[in-house]
């Protein structure tokens, strides 16, 4: 099992015995309202998913990540994890503030160590490679507040989640992997329902590992993506009918997709390293959107990070071949396109919207039945 990224698994969660007292103290602090997406960032920092980060990036860290894709100590880090506020917000350097997501109780406290301006266009160029606001990451950046707060956070309480049954934190998955005797664990990130191509990739990778860590992204996505409920329900059906229980585990990642292409692919690998995985599956146009990135840019970027500490497993294109009678890739199948059924997300969405059951060459029947039974399978 790999060491956590940066050498130490961060734990910024207030101990249970101190929780009530610390919550009461936080109620007297300056209150800062945060969004659900920002709240999930706080949780991911506190539970070590973003190790070695202990809080939101300070100026030097931010500049280093944006410019060089590394933290000042030369640890690989490709996405800036930041907390933005509007210019004029009543917050000062050196002050501890309480972060509120809702009106129930403070979620966390933050030491505001630095406040510095956000250059939205530069941020967009460096992180997303474009200033085109049709890119969802750029659109969000342009709507961000003009100031960034840097400093450490502490999580005061665990918010309610409808996905509690599928949640495990890195210190828990590391125990689980050891208990199951999994020395080699391959992680699969997804924001889609599973088709036969996904199953093929996962099982091919599992052939060379001890366990499969299926880690779907739960959180805000772009319009037209599958809903969180659709992803979980269909994966559960797939696992129930086609996977060995002792060789696979389904755990959600509450995280907002940035659609930052290659930079985000590396970030996805780092998070799974912190969960305890040794390998990470990187697909075609991983974390991409539209035509903003080359289909294999997310493969090439890993050449810049030989010190990453998790092994990327690359998959190119694959399809269902009627003559071969199964899923194939370009290295194993000699047949032409007339024999192939391509795995098209657009086509799958069209069929579901029309109430048409996708054929078994694309998706397992049990998965299709679950998908068609959902009232709203897509983000609106």
Describe this structure in words.
This protein is an alpha/beta fold. It folds into 2 domains: 5-155, Sulfate adenylyltransferase (Roll), CATH 3.10.400.10; 164-373, HUPs (Rossmann fold). Helix content is 31%, strand content 18%. The chain contains 12 helices and 16 strands. The strands form 3 sheets. Strands 1, 2, 3, 4, 5, 6 and 7 form a 7-stranded mixed beta sheet that branches. Strands 8, 9, 10, 11, 12 and 13 form a 6-stranded parallel beta sheet that branches. The protein has a 3-stranded antiparallel beta sheet with strand order 15-14-16, with helices on one face. Helix 4 (120-128) packs antiparallel against helix 5 (136-142) and helix 8 (228-242) runs antiparallel to helix 12. The longest helix has 15 residues, at 228-242. It is globular, with a radius of gyration of 21 Å. The two termini are 40 Å apart.
């Amino acid at each position: 099992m790999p060491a956590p990224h940066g050498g130490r698994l961060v734990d910024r969660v207030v101990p249970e015995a101190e929780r009530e007292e610390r919550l009461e103290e936080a109620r007297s602090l300056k209150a800062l309202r945060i969004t659900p997406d920002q709240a999930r960032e706080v949780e991911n920092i506190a539970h070590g998913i973003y190790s070695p980060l202990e809080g939101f990036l300070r100026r030097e860290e931010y500049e280093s990540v944006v410019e060089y894709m590394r933290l000042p100590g030369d640890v690989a880090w490709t996405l800036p994890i930041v907390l933005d506020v509007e210019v004029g917000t009543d917050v000062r350097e050196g002050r501890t503030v309480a972060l509120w997501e809702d009106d129930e109780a403070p979620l966390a406290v933050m030491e505001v160590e630095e406040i510095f301006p956000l250059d939205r266009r530069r941020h967009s160029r460096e992180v997303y490679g474009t200033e085109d606001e049709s890119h969802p990451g750029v659109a969000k950046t342009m709507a961000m507040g003009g100031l960034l707060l840097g400093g450490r956070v502490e999580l005061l309480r665990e918010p309610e989640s409808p996905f509690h049954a599928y949640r495990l934190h890195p210190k828990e998955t590391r125990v689980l992997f050891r208990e199951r005797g999994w020395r080699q664990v391959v992680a699969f990130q997804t924001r889609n329902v599973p088709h036969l191509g996904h199953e093929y990739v996962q099982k091919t990778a599992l052939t060379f590992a001890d366990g499969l860590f299926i880690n779907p992204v739960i959180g805000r996505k772009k319009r037209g993506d599958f809903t969180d409920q659709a992803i979980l329900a269909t994966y559960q059906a797939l696992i129930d009918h086609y996977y060995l229980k002792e060789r696979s585990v389904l755990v959600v990642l509450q995280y907002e997709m940035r659609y930052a292409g290659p930079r985000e692919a590396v970030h996805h690998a780092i998070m799974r390293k912190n969960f305890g995985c040794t390998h990470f599956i990187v697909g075609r146009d991983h974390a991409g959107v539209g035509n903003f990135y080359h289909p294999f840019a997310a493969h090439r970027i890993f050449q810049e990070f030989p010190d990453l500490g998790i092994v990327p497993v690359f998959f190119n294109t694959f399809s269902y071949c009627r003559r071969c009678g199964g899923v194939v890739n370009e290295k194993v199948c000699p047949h032409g396109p007339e024999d192939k059924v391509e795995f098209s997300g657009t086509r799958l969405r069209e069929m579901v919207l029309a109430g048409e059951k996708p054929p078994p060459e694309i998706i397992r029947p049990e998965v299709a039945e679950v998908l068609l039974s959902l009232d709203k399978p897509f983000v609106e």
